[in-house]
Amino acid sequence: MDKDIVLEVKNLSVSFYTDQRKNTAIRDVSFTARRGKTLCVVGESGCGKSVSASAIMRLLPELSRIESGEINYYGRGEPIRMDKLDPDGELIRQIRGGDIAMIFQDPMTALNPVYTIGYQISENLLEHNKGMKKSEALDKSVQLLKAMGIPMPEQRVNEYPHQFSGGMRQRAMIAMAMACNPQLLLADEPTTALDVTVQAQIFELMADLKTNYNAAVILITHDMGVVTELADNVSVMYMGYVVEEGSVDEVLRTPAHPYTKALLSSIPVLGRGRNQDLQPIRGATPDPFHRPPGCQFEPRCDYAAPQCTQAMPEREHVDGEHYVRCFRYKEVLKNE
Ligand SMILES: Nc1ncnc2c1ncn2[C@@H]1O[C@H](COP(=O)(O)OP(=O)(O)O)[C@@H](O)[C@H]1O
Ligand SMILES: [Mg+2]
């Protein structure tokens, strides 16, 4: 067993049951988060990124349930099952906010407007550190704000969230997340609401966290540009499936799935200037209630062949850590 593995999700499927219709939003999803590494989960809106994160955190929306699969947490030495074998979510309640911390797109989902920033970080510290004194917790909160690049932390620790700018709030939320030295940081589109400069600063901060705290990071994004900047490993999702995964080098240099290729050709390349010929992916993502019968990407795929309308391809090993769900991946690889 690889000692660096903090979390392993295996063959996870989650369905929603609404209006007597069943929608299996994530299908047979597997991924692994390792200490000191960033795994980027990338894909267009609605592909199942947030549902995957919510399943890990046991924060699934109402009317949804885990159908099958495993979630194993290894951060405490002995593996802990966090899926159906922990039916009440008792274990994950102990782990959430401590061993595993989550940061969201909107910091106000984590910050309470009626308490000072310092109070909120302190509460989190006190909850997960038995015997810590309130004054110690407040000191540690100041240190954390400082470590997250918030100027004048002694002063700002006594301020309320509304006194912080968007970027500063995001830093405060990350400070709160880091308060308990998490083994795993799960970030769901943490910078989508921020402007580009602040985005870059937050990403720099996240890269530092990975190194300084040796945490495993799962970073969810719809932006391939973010993947090129931050990922060690990448999982590309489409219509609920992980269609390609591997090290960032493998996936970005030799994409084996036509969807990954299409995503890559739609990001601007540094140095090529503004007048780049960015190719949007033709067609639209299908409605989850009217899925194509075969490969989910087939209707939009330039490589589609008759067999692609028959079934969703199984996960095939390409090389090293590189896996793909595509019948035609050898053609895709040939056609650089
Ligand atoms: N609250 C919900 N009720 C019903 N279906 C949902 C709900 N949230 C998500 N879904 C379904 O799950 C799919 C994946 O959603 P999500 O994981 O939020 O996508 P994203 O990749 O944009 O984060 C959606 O396309 C939708 O079909
Ligand atoms: Mg989402």
Outline the structure in words.
By secondary structure, this protein is α/β, with parallel strands linked by helices. It has a domain at 5-38 and 47-99 and 221-334: Rossmann fold (3-Layer(aba) Sandwich), CATH 3.40.50. Helix content is 31%, strand content 24%. It contains eleven helices and twelve strands. It has helices spanning 49-57, 90-95, 117-128, 134-147, 153-156, 166-178, 196-213, 224-230, 248-253, 258-265, 329-334, and strands at residues 5-18, 21-34, 38-42, 64-73, 80-81, 100-103, 184-188, 216-221, 233-238, 241-247, 316-319, 322-324. The strands form two sheets. An eight-stranded mixed beta sheet has the order 6-7-8-3-9-10-12-11, with helices on both faces. Strand 9 (233-238) and strand 10 (241-247) form a beta hairpin. Helix 3 (117-128) crosses helix 4. It is globular. The mean pLDDT is 90. The chain binds adenosine-5'-diphosphate and magnesium ion (MG). Magnesium ion binds at residues 49-50, 188.
Q: What structural class results from the helix and strand content?
A: alpha/beta
CATH class label of the domain at 5-38 and 47-99 and 221-334: Alpha Beta
Query: Any ligands, ions or cofactors bound here, and which?
Result: adenosine-5'-diphosphate, magnesium ion
Order of strands across the biggest sheet?
6-7-8-3-9-10-12-11
Average pLDDT over all residues: 90
The N- to C-terminal Cα distance equals 35 Å
| Most strands sheet | 8 strands, mixed
Radius of gyration: 21 Å
How many β-strands, per DSSP? 12
Can you name the CATH architecture of the domain at 5-38 and 47-99 and 221-334? 3-Layer(aba) Sandwich
List the helices and strands in order: EEEHEEHEHHHHEHEHEEHHEEH
Low-confidence stretches: none
